[in-house]
Structures are given as C-alpha cells and as structure tokens.
Amino acid sequence: MGSLDAALAAHLLRLREAHAEDTALFIVSDHGIHYGTYYDGGEAGKQEHSLPLFYALLPRSLLAHQPQLEATLCANTQRLISPFDLHATLLHFLSHPKPPRVPDWGFAPFRVRPRSLFTPIPHSRTCEDAGIPQAICPCTSG
Hints:
By secondary structure, this protein is mainly alpha-helical. It is built from seven helices and two strands; from the N terminus they run αβααβαααα.
C-alpha cells in the first residue's frame, strides 16, 4: 500500500500541476477495509468500513473567487454525509451556482434526504437525517 500511496500522490500532483484551474477531482471508495485481521480484530476496522474515503480537489481559482464556498466545504469535512450527498454534490457542481435538482428518492426503503456539500451540513446531523439506515450507521457501535 505504501508504494501505491506514493504513486497516487505523485499522479495527483502531476494532475494538479497540469490541470489545476480547469479540473475538479473527486476520489471516492465504496467502503473501507472489510476483511482480515484488522477488520475482524476490533472496532476500528468496522468503523473504518462504514466511513469510506472521499477527497475532493477543486480548482483553486473557484475557491479563491468564492470564499464562502471554501469555508462551507471546510466545515463540512467534519460532518456526517452519505453517498446520496455526494450525488447531490456532483449534480450541484454541474449546475453551480444554481442549486441542484436532486431526484425523488421516495421509492427507497428508507428516507433519503441528500444535501450538496456546497451547502452547510448541520453539525448535529444524525444518520436518520442523512438517510443512512441504522444498521450501517457509523455513529453507533456494535
């Protein structure tokens, strides 16, 4: 993994150097580690499994011209989000500065209320608020 991380970092730096002002890059995973000694041996593995990787690299010029957007994104790094929020964010990125048109998720077996990360996510947001089923909520243990 160490060499993969170094190679990925080098690649991202090359992308940033070549395309910094006209490219947004989103790096996501579907889940964290979900097998092996680390996962089976303690709570940290299970917690990591429910908190997948998500990085967003946005053009510096976009953030410089919209300091409130940068402040909102920074605050949201410590908020509970779901894959539905990522979907709303990608839609918002395409329609920015207009709000996104998110689909109706009424057919889902649980209540889905996606929010774009370009808007403030409440600090007190719960899994229920985010549309995360209790069985996979990272806020509860066990």
